[in-house]
Specification:
By secondary structure, this protein is an alpha/beta fold. 38% of the residues lie in helices and 19% in strands. It has a six-stranded mixed β-sheet. A five-stranded parallel β-sheet has the order 2-1-3-4-5, with helices on one face. Strand 1, helix 2 and strand 2 form a beta-alpha-beta unit.
């Protein structure tokens, strides 16, 4: 991986803003805060800010920074883990003097001035870890930085279970682990469930539906979310309850919401064992990884069509 453009741009700008996608997961936050931490430790004279609005229910993360439009004008913007322009959480990144995209999704929307996209990587945190490993003889990597990146790497590979987990992925994980991180504690932080979450998992296992014997799915209404006192993001974070079942080739969770005009719509999380689903998700206002994607603003008819598309793909 070549990071000359990124490193040269970092050296050239005094103000650096780091952005990531809406509905952030741990890879988005891990990349954002890991990069911010590393820059602050090694380029102390620079003003580095992690920007955005939304949070994730998984893991513990610092507070996000703020910046006015004047501060953003003339700065360097680094957008991590974001496949397309519309999904950047804070569209003011366009005010920056220079935009660099660092990502591992297919580069179908090269919206930045420079696009450092390595779609063979399992996570954006894997890419940034590679940068820091290459620079480790002259640049410091703290335990805090390593923890942020490890959390993103661990979750985006589903604990090193995804099909795009490679020897390089494991090498980057080992590099981060060598910086004194507490791996058992991080696993507890990311994957331990409260009693309420445990009970909700039981609800999911009792109320899923099965399509053609190998696609499990759950549709959660607003009433169900209110009954369990869950946000839609918290509910969809439980999608892995359906994973690890031998018969399930794909599993999906949809949460109801009200559209701008009061119509009934659904957002969804999609997972698969082997088959590629991110190109299917792109047809339904979404996208993501080969085996883990999201969709949004679906009607009930759209859900049926989407599930049938995944079923067709499985039988190809």
């Amino acid at each position: 991986m070549n990071f000359d453009i990124l490193l040269g741009s970092i050296a050239s700008y005094d103000r650096i803003a780091i952005f990531r996608h809406v509905r952030p997961d741990c890879d988005a936050f891990g990349a954002q805060f890991g990069l911010k931490s590393w820059l602050q430790e090694n380029f102390k004279e620079k003003d580095v800010r992690a920007l955005g609005i939304e949070r994730t229910p998984q893991g513990n993360w610092p507070e996000l920074d703020t910046a006015n439009d004047e501060w953003l004008q003339g700065c360097l913007a680094i957008v991590v883990d974001t496949a397309n322009k519309e999904r950047v959480d804070d569209q003011r990144f366009v005010l920056a003097d220079l935009v660099i995209k660092v990502d591992h999704h297919p580069n179908r929307d090269p919206f930045a001035n420079f696009n450092l996209v390595y779609d063979e990587s399992a996570a954006t945190c894997e890419i940034l870890t590679c940068l820091m490993k290459q620079e480790s003889e002259t640049r410091h990597v703290s335990k805090t930085t390593a923890e942020f990146l490890y959390k993103g790497l661990l979750t985006d590979t589903l604990s090193y279970k995804t099909s795009n987990t490679t020897a390089h992925t494991l090498e980057m994980g080992a590099f981060l682990a060598s910086h004194g991180i507490d791996i058992p504690a991080l696993n507890r932080e990311l994957f331990e469930r409260s009693l309420a979450q445990f009970q909700f998992a039981t609800y999911i296992q009792s109320n899923y539906k099965l399509l053609d014997g190998h696609i499990a799915f759950v549709i959660l209404t607003k009433e169900t979310l209110e009954e369990w006192n869950l946000t839609d993001a918290q509910a969809r974070n439980a999608i892995n309850v359906l994973g690890g079942v031998k018969e399930f080739e794909a599993w999906c969770m949809f949460t109801e919401k009200e559209g701008e005009n009061g119509e009934q719509l659904f957002d969804g999380s999609l997972r698969s064992k082997i088959v590629t689903i991110n190109d299917i998700a792109e047809q339904f206002n979404g996208g993501g990884h080969k085996n883990a994607s999201g969709v949004k603003n679906l009607t009930q008819d759209d859900i049926v069509t989407l599930l049938n598309c995944i079923n067709t793909r499985i039988h190809e």
